[in-house]
Design the sequence.
C-alpha cells in the first residue's frame, strides 16, 4: 500500500478514535448510578384497587441514567420484585368464596425517558416524570392444601391451550409493558440525590394472577389436566365444604380489563463526576460544576 494511503488511513483512524474517546468521556460525565428500594404490588382480579400498600412485597432496582440536557435524561433499570394477592382479604363475599391466591417473582428490565421540572444544579429539589418500555418475566404460583408449590400456568385453570377452547391461548411468561410515573428528588450534594418514586406498568395480559375469564366444565378440565387442576381452579371447598365447583361459563374474572403492576419507594442516584452545570456538547462550558446548587429555594 502506498505511504500516502497508509498515512491517510492512519489519520482517519486517529480521528475516529479521538471522537469515540470524546463521546465516551462526554457520556460518562453525564452518567449516574441509580438504585431503588421499596414495594411491588399489582391490580387485577385478586386486588382491584389501583394503588395500595395492602399485600405489597419488597422490590429492588439497580441501573444507570445519562443526562441528555439539563432536564431530559434516559434511564435503564433492572428490577426484582414479588407479587402476591389473596381472595381471603377481599370484602367481596363471592371472592372470599372463590378463595384464590397467587404469588409471582417479577423480573423487569426498563428503558425510560425522563424530564426534570427543575435543574438540580440550580435547585435543591425537582419533581420529575418518565415513560418508556419494559420487558418483564412473571410466573404465578400457589400452594396446595399439602403445602406444595404449584406453578399455575401448567394447570390451564381456564382451559388455556386445551382442545375445545381455541380462543383461550396459553399466556406467555415473558411480555412487554409500558412503564410510566413520576416522583420527586432532592440534591444531597453535587453527586448524590435521593427521592421517592411511583412507577406504574401497563401490561397487555390479564393473567398476572392466572385469573381472567370464566370457569370451564369441571369434567373437561379434570380429563385434560387432572384433579389438581380442578382443585386449583376453584378453592371454595377449602373454606366452606358446602361450596361446589361453579358451572361452566360462570365468571371467574373480568377479561375486559388487563392487569397492572407497580413499584413505589426510595430512589438514590450517584453522579459519577458531579452534576454538570450545563450540557453543551463542545466541552469547556459543558464541564462539570462542583459547587453547591445556585438557588436553594
Sequence:
Amino acid at each position: 500500500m502506498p505511504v500516502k494511503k497508509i498515512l491517510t488511513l492512519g489519520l482517519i483512524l486517529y480521528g475516529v478514535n479521538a471522537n469515540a474517546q470524546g463521546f465516551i468521556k462526554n457520556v460518562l460525565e453525564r452518567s449516574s448510578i441509580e438504585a431503588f428500594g421499596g414495594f411491588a404490588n399489582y391490580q387485577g382480579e385478586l386486588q382491584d384497587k389501583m394503588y395500595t400498600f395492602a399485600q405489597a412485597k419488597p422490590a429492588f432496582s439497580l441501573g444507570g441514567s445519562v443526562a441528555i440536557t439539563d432536564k431530559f435524561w434516559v434511564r435503564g433499570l433492572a428490577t426484582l420484585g414479588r407479587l402476591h394477592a389473596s381472595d381471603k382479604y377481599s370484602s367481596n363475599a363471592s371472592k372470599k368464596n372463590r378463595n384464590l391466591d397467587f404469588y409471582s417473582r417479577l423480573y423487569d428490565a426498563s428503558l425510560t425517558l425522563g424530564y426534570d421540572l427543575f435543574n438540580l444544579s440550580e435547585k435543591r429539589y425537582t419533581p420529575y416524570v418518565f415513560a418508556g418500555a419494559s420487558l418483564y418475566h412473571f410466573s404465578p404460583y400457589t400452594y396446595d392444601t399439602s403445602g406444595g408449590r404449584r406453578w399455575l400456568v401448567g394447570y390451564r385453570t381456564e382451559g388455556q391451550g386445551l382442545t375445545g377452547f381455541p380462543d383461550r391461548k396459553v399466556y406467555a411468561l415473558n411480555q412487554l409493558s409500558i412503564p410510566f410515573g413520576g416522583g420527586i428528588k432532592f440534591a444531597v450534594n453535587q453527586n448524590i440525590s435521593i427521592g421517592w418514586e411511583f412507577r406504574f406498568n401497563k401490561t397487555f395480559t390479564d393473567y398476572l394472577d392466572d385469573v381472567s375469564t370464566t370457569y370451564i366444565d369441571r369434567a373437561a378440565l379434570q380429563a385434560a389436566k387432572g384433579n389438581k387442576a380442578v382443585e386449583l381452579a376453584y378453592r371454595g371447598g377449602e373454606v366452606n365444604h358446602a361450596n361446589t365447583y361453579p358451572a361452566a361459563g360462570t365468571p371467574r374474572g373480568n377479561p375486559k380489563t388487563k392487569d397492572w403492576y407497580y413499584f413505589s419507594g426510595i430512589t438514590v442516584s450517584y453522579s459519577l463526576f458531579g452534576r454538570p452545570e450545563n450540557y453543551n456538547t463542545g466541552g469547556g462550558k459543558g464541564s462539570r460544576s462542583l459547587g453547591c446548587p445556585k438557588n436553594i429555594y
